[in-house]
Structure formats: C-alpha cells, structure tokens
Amino acid sequence: MKANISNREIEVIKEAYSILKENMFLKTVYLNNSFFSEKKELEGNEDFYKDIDYNLVAIRQDFRKILIIMSSIDVRYEEFRKNRNISFQNEIGCLIEYLFIKYRVILEYIHQILKKVLFLKFNKEEKKEYHEKKYEHEKFQYLLDYIIKKNKDNLNLDINIFKEMTDSRNSLVHNGATCVVYYDFRDEDNKYLKFKINSLDELDKGIKIKKDTFYQTENGQIIYDFYWGMHISKLIVFLENIYKFLLDESTLNDEKKQIIDEKLKNEKCSPGEYILEKFLEDIILRLSKEQ
Fold it and tell me: Can you tell which superkingdom this protein's organism belongs to (predicted)?
C-alpha cells in the first residue's frame, strides 16, 4: 500500500512526535494563568482566570481520554484479528466515533480560550463581527483568521497550522455520523484497521474525506493509523502554538517564560503520552519504508 503523503504532513507528524519526546505537550494546564495577572483590564476579574483554567484542564482530561480510547482500539483490533468476532468490529466502530467527538470538544475548549483572550484586544467593530457569525465554527474561524492576520511576521508561531485546522475541523465534525469498520476476511494480514464514516446529518453531506490522501485506500476506506496519526499530530502542533500565542499575549518577561519551559519540560502530563509516542513512531517508520 503506497502512501501518498505530502512533505508538510510528514513535517507535522514529526513535529508532534518531537513535542511528545521533549515532554512539552499539554504543559499549559500547569501555568494557572498567572501570565495574565498584571493586565489592568483584568483586575478583580476572577471569572476570566477560572474560565481559562477550566478549559485548559478540560483539554488535558479529554486528551487523556483520547489516549485511552486509542489504546483500547489497538487492543480490540488485535483481538478482532485473532478471533474475527463481529462484536469487536462493532465495538471498534463506536470507539472511533468517540474519538471524533472528543476531538471536536477539544476544539470547542480552544474556541472558548481564544474568545476570552482575544476579546481583550478586539475593538467594538471586531466584537460585533464575531457575534454576527451565525454558526460556532464560523466564530471559531473568525478568531483563527484574526490570529493569522495579526501574526504574519511572528516567527514564534507556525501560522500554517492555524490555517490547516479549518480543514481538520471540517473533516472531523460529523454530527450524527456512524463509523463502519471494514475487514477483508480473505486478507491474511489486515494489519491496517480501516473504516468509513456514514453521515446521518443533512448538514454534513458537504463534508467529505479528501480523496487521494495517504490515509485512504483505493476503495475509499480510511486507514485508521494514518488518518488519526495525522489529525492527532495536527492537534498537538496546534495546541503547542496556542500555548505560544498565549505566552506572546501574556505579561511575563522572557526570563519567566524560560523558567516555565524548563520546569515543565521534565514532566509527563499523562502516562498515555508514551502510547501516542509509540503510535507516531510506528507511522513515521511505516511512511519512511513506503516512500
């Protein structure tokens, strides 16, 4: 199975793997938002800190759930390959659906964080434009576009990831969708778990999995390892850049930022990060062999 993958996609997967190996992922949950404490407009506004703290902790908790689900899928698929029990096939489909849900929820948490922070900078017209957006995904996109526009020359941020998250969100949000796991009993190997998404929502009919990608077979089935490896990698790189953006917007000086980085670099936020490291390592190895 030849993998049709762009250099950018390989770059994102490798960057996510590097972030995990350096123990830098999800570190934001330990900052307690002290980096905004000296902003005059926030004096006495405890709700601001509580809201951001809540959303940062929620991101960590839901990402841990994603790691647990990915581990469960690996275990169940190995059992399915050995026993070929149809009940495992249905269970795996439900677990993959749960991944879609949690990915979407994490993006919603990020939306709330960015709204809080950017509304400190928005003028009346920008706030009005935001509120005039009808759908939540349009409001989220407005915030991302604002960051892109204001940070074109910011070498500290990977602006491309903010643009790419739009495609990721559209590809991953399937309201009322059903995941169907495919298995060819004639195939002796079946090392790749494959699935399709069948949408039940009229609004989602325009949302398609892009064809001719490295995570799709000739029959239009989605290769689980490659598909989720790509999107989880994008989420990791995106969250890392959200963290950098928050630091850029903060009141901390460079010395304090460096102290925070060094303190958190040596901590794992979740044992499940080792699972994801191995997952991405396997993908990088497979892709290097197939290129």
Answer: Bacteria
* Residue 52: domain span: 7-290
H helical segments located in the chain: 7-21, 46-83, 86-118, 124-132, 136-150, 159-172, 224-249, 254-265, 272-290
Q: Phi and psi of 179, rounded to 5°?
A: -95, 125
Q: Please tell me which residue, 267 or 273, carries the higher pLDDT value.
A: 273
Per the CB < 8 A criterion, the answer to whether 27 and 46 are in contact is: no
Any domain includes 40? yes
Residues in the chain: 291
Q: How many CA atoms lie within 13 A of 84 on its CB side?
A: 8
- Tell me the three state secondary structure of residue 291: coil
In a domain, 281, yes or no: yes
- What pTM value is reported for the model? 0.82
**Which residues, listed in sequence order, are joined to residue 198 by a DSSP beta bridge?**
178
Which residues sit opposite 223 in a β-bridge?
194
Treating both helix axes as pointing N-terminal to C-terminal, what angle do 272-290 and 7-21 enclose, rounded to 10 degrees?
150
Single-letter code of the amino acid located at 192: Y
The answer to whether residue 18 is domain-embedded is yes
Q: What angle do CA 173, 178, 184 make, to 5 degrees?
A: 120
Confidence band, pLDDT 50/70/90 cuts, at residue 225: confident
Give the number of other Cβ atoms within 10 Å of residue 246's Cβ.
19
Domain count, the chain: 1
pLDDT tens for 121-166 read 899 999 999 999 998 888 999 999 999 888 887 777 787 888 777 6
Q: Residue 197: helix, strand or coil by DSSP?
A: strand
| Tens digit of each residue's pLDDT (9 = 90 or more) over 100-128 | 889 889 999 999 999 988 998 899 999 99
> Is position 68 within any domain?
yes
Report d(CA 14, CA 20) in Å as an integer.
10
CB 199 within 8 A of CB 174: yes
Q: What is the CA radius of gyration of the chain?
A: 20
